[in-house]
Amino acid sequence: MKGKWLIAGIAIILGILSIRQLSYTWYTNKVECEAYENSTDEAHEQIVLDSLANDTLDLGIISYNYRDAKNKEMKLGLDLRGGISVILQVQVRDLLEDLADHSENPIFVEALNSADIKQRSQGNRAYVDIFFDEFERIRSEKGQQNLKYASADLFGNRQNASFIEFNETDESIKEKIKDDIDAKIGTAYQVISSRINRFGVVEPVIQRLGGAGDGRILVEMPGEKNKERIKNLLQSTAKLEFWKVEANNPQVTSYFSSVNPQSLGVKTDAQSLAGIIQPALEGNSMFSVATKDTAVINGILNSENLKANMPSSIRNFKYFWGQKPVQTKDANTNGKFLSLYALSGDAQNAPLLLGDVIDQASGERNSGSISNEPIVSMKMNAEGAQKWGRITEENVGNSIAIVLDNTVYSAPNINEPIKGGSSQISGNFTLDEARDLANILQAGSLPASSKIVQLEEVGPSLGQEAINSSLIAFVAVFVLILFWMVFYYSRAGIYADIAVTVNTLFLLGLMVGLFGATLSLPGIAGIILTLAIAIDANIIINERVKDEMLHHGKSLKESISIAYSWKGAISAIFDSHLTSIITAAILLIFGKGPVQGFAITLLIGLFCSLFTAIFLTKLFIDRRLDQGKDVAFFTSITKNWFQGMNIDFMAKRKMFYIISIVVSIACLAIIAVRGFDMGVDFEGGRTYTIRFEQPVSANDVRVNLEKTLTDDDGTTTAPTVKIFGPSNQVKVTTKLKADQESTAIDNEIKQKIYEGVKSFLPANYTYEQFSKDDTAIGIMSVVKVGPTIADDTTRASILAVILALIGVGVYILFRFKWQFGVGIVAGALHDVIVILGLFAALHGILPFNLEIDQAFIAAILTVIGYSINDSVIIFDRIREYMGMYPKMPFDELINKSTNNTLSRTMNTSISMILVVLIIFIFGGETIKGFMFAMLIGVIVGTYSSIYISSQVMYDLTKNKIKKSN
C-alpha cells in the first residue's frame, strides 16, 4: 500500500494525542475518588480537593496537576452528571416598550399583542421583525400610514433624541432599533455570564442562540446542585429602586377595605376584602394577606378599572409585595402572610433613586446587630451618594423602601441623613441568599426581564444510574462485536477488532480534545452506533474478499487488491458513510441539546471509521502478507454461510408491493385513530420523574394528581402518568399553566404534585425533602418546555426529516440514476411510516416510554441513514454488474446482486440488531424508546432494501433497459 508510513504516522500521532487527552479524565476521577474516600461530607470533600489541586502528575513526557486536568477532562451532560440546563428568553417586548417610552398608542399596543401571538407560530423569526410586520399591517388596515416610527408617541420621543431624528425614514429607524435591541441582548448575555462566573459554577456553558435579536440564551451547569438558587440568579432583572413608603395611609386602607373584587372582574367568591386583608405584620406595610389569597389582590391591582375608581391622591402609588412570607401560627392559612406596600416616587412618579449608582455590593453578616443576621451592604458612587444624602435628609422620620424587581426587600425608617453613600438591604436572608443578591447587584441589571422558556433538571443519583447502565451496555456491545468478528472472519476479524478499538479511541480523543463535545446518553448511543457502522465497513471489505475468492476464483492477494479498490468495496463504503454523514449533519443543524451531541459523536465516528476501516486494516493485512503469511477471511464454520444463495426476489415483487402498501395504509390508519404520545419537546408543558419507596400504580397516582392539578378557576388538567423504569418510579407530564413560565408558577406546580402524591410517600415526608436536589425519594428530574420552544422544535424536526430524505435522494441521484434515488426514498419513507405506526399502536401498551421527542427524531434520521446504506450496497453491486453483464436480463441481474450481497446484509443486520438489543436492555430507561425505534428500523430497513428499493428501481428502469437491448 502506497503511503503506508504516512498512514502509520497519522495513526500513531492520533493515538498518542487521544490517550493524552483521555488521561486527564482518568486523573481527575482518581483524585476525586481519593478526596471522596478521605472526606466526611461535601464541604470537607471540597477542602480535600483544594489541597490536592496543585499536586503534579509526572509521566515523563507530560506532567500536569488536578486543576489543569479538570479544565481538559471529558465533560458529562446533565443526563449523566445531573445538574440544570435552561434557555432564557430576554423579553424583547419590554425593550420595545422602553424604547417607545411605554407608549399607549393603540396601534403600537395592538402590534405588540399581535406579535406575542404570532411568535408562537413564527418562533424561528426574531420578535422585533414580527412586531414590525404586525405594526405595518395594522397601521395599513386602520388607514394610519402617516403614523411613522419617528412619531413623538413612538420611537421619536425625548429619550431617543440622540440617535433617532424626527424626519428619519421608517427603514432607517427599524435598523437602528434592531441594532439597539441586539446590543441590549448582548448586554444581557454579559450580565448573565458575569453572574454565573461570580457564583462559582464549575464548567458552565453559556451561549446565545438564534440570530441577531433572537433573545435566547442557553445556560448549562452539569453537576450543579443548587438549582433554585441558579434559577433565581438567572431570572432576576436586578432592577434596584428606592421609593418612599406611604405607611398607614388611611385612604389606601379605606379604599381596599371597601373594594368589591367581583366588580373589577376578579374571579373570587368574596364580595369584599374584609376577610382577606389582615393588619400589617411588618412595620410600614399597608396590610398583610395570606399567601393563598394574594391572587385576589393581584387581580385587583391588575384590573383596568382600578385607577378609575381610586381616589386621585393615591392613584399613582405603586403597590408591591414584600419579599418573603411572614410566618404566623394561624392554622387556617398555613401560617404564611405576605405584606403589601404602598409606595410613592418623585414629582414625575419615578423612583427616588435607581440601582445603577451602586458601585460595590457584598453579602455578609451584620456585625452591628445582636442577631448577626445576613445583610447586603452597598456602596454608591459619588453621584449616588449625593442623591442618597439629599433623599434621606428630606425623609427623616419616614421610611424608604428598597425594591428589587418590583419586590420590597426592606423598608427601613430614616432616623437621620445618611452621608457617604452607604446603604444595606436586610430581608430575612440566609447567608447564601445575601451573597447571591450581592453578586446580582455587582454584575449589573438586565436591560429587560427574562423568563425560563425551557428547563431541564436532573438529580445526581439519576445521572449516576445512567452512567452505570451505559457502561454495562458499552462493555457488552464491545465484547460482543470483538467476539463476533473473530468468529466469523478469523484473522481478518482480529484486524477489524483492532480497527474498531482504535476507532473508539480516536473518537473519544477527538470529541474531548478537538471539539470539546459534552458526552450525554444519546452521545453514548452514538458511540455504540458508530461501532456498528465501523464493523459494517469491515464486513463490506471482508465480504468482498470472500466473494472474489469463492465465486470468482481469485487469489488472496488479488481479492484483497480488488476489495480495497474504488471498484471493489471502497465506493460502497464511501457511499454508505456519506449518506449517514448527510443525516448526521442535518441533525447537527436542526437538532437541539442531546440530539446535537448524538450528531457530533456520529459525525466524528463516521470519519474515524473511514480511516480505520480502509487504511488501518489494510496496513495490518499488507504487513502480514509481506511476511509471507496468509490472512484468513473466514473460518471452516462460516465459509459457506449465505454462499450460493439463489433466491428469486424479483418474482414475487408484486406480492411484496401489496404487503408493503397494506402495512403502510394500516400504519397511517392507526396514526389517524390513536395518534402519538407526544413529549413535552413538541407540545410544551412540564415533566417530572418521581421515585417512591414502594411500587405504585400509575392509575392511582394519576387519580390523586387530578384532584390537585387544578387551575385558578378549579378546572382540572388531567396529567399523563406512566411507570418509568422500575415499578416505584413514574413519569408525570402536565400541561397545567404550560404557557406561564415564571419560577413562581414552577414552584406552584411542584407543590401541587407533592400534595397529589403525598399519600404514596413515607409519613411526615416534607415538600422540602420531596423537591430537594440530592434525594433518594421524590423528584429525580424536571423538564419544562414553553409553547414557543415546542413549536420551534416541531418545525425543525419536520424540516430535518424532509431535508434528510431530499439530501440523500439528491446524492443518490448524483451517484447513480434518478430511478435509484426514487427507489431509495420509497424504501426509507416506508420505514418511517412503519416506525410511526408502531409507536402509535403500542404507546401505553408496552411497559416503557414511546414518546415522540427529539431523541425519536434522531432515531428516525438514523434509521433513514441505515436503510439507505443497505440499499446503496445492493445498488452499488447492481451498477457494477450492469457493466460486467450487459446482456443479462435486468431482473436476473438484480437477483444476482441481491444474493451476492446477502451475506453482508444479514451479517450487518444481525450485528446491528444485537447491538441495539443490548443497549435497549442495559442502556437505561431514558433511551429505551430511542433504541426501540432503532430496533424496528434495522429490521424494517433490511426488508425495504431487499423488497422495496430494488423493486421500485426495477419497475422504473425495465422499459428503458428493454429499449436499449
UniProtKB/TrEMBL annotation:
Top-level taxonomy: Bacteria, Pseudomonadati, Bacteroidota, Flavobacteriia, Flavobacteriales
Pfam families: Sec_GG, SecD_1st, SecD_SecF_C, SecDF_P1_head
Spans through the membrane: 466-487, 494-515, 521-541, 562-591, 597-621, 655-676, 796-814, 821-843, 855-875, 906-924, 930-954
The name this protein goes by in its record: Multifunctional fusion protein
Family: Belongs to the SecD/SecF family. SecF subfamily. Belongs to the SecD/SecF family. SecD subfamily.
Keyword Transcription in record: no
Role of this protein: Part of the Sec protein translocase complex. Interacts with the SecYEG preprotein conducting channel. SecDF uses the proton motive force (PMF) to complete protein translocation after the ATP-dependent function of SecA.
Gene Ontology biological process terms, A to Z: intracellular protein transmembrane transport; protein targeting; protein transport by the Sec complex
SUPFAM superfamilies referenced in this protein's UniProt entry, alphabetically: Multidrug efflux transporter AcrB transmembrane domain (SSF82866)
Domain of life the protein comes from: Bacteria
Protein's UniProt keywords contain Membrane: yes
Domain Protein translocase subunit SecDF P1, residue spans: 187-246
Gene Ontology cellular component terms for the protein in this record: plasma membrane
Signal sequence, start to end: none
GO terms for MF: protein-transporting ATPase activity
Domain Protein export membrane protein SecD/SecF C-terminal stretches: 449-618, 774-958
Span of domain SecDF P1 head subdomain: 349-448
Keywords, ordered alphabetically: Cell membrane, Membrane, Protein transport, Translocation, Transmembrane, Transmembrane helix, Transport
Cellular localization per UniProt: Cell membrane
Membrane-protein topology: Multi-pass membrane protein
InterPro entries: SecD (IPR005791), SecD/SecF_arch_bac (IPR022813), SecD/SecF_bac (IPR022645), SecD/SecF_CS (IPR022646), SecD_1st (IPR048631), SecD_SecF_C (IPR048634), SecD_SecF_C_bact (IPR055344), SecDF_P1_head (IPR054384)
Subunit record text: Forms a complex with SecD. Part of the essential Sec protein translocation apparatus which comprises SecA, SecYEG and auxiliary proteins SecDF. Other proteins may also be involved.
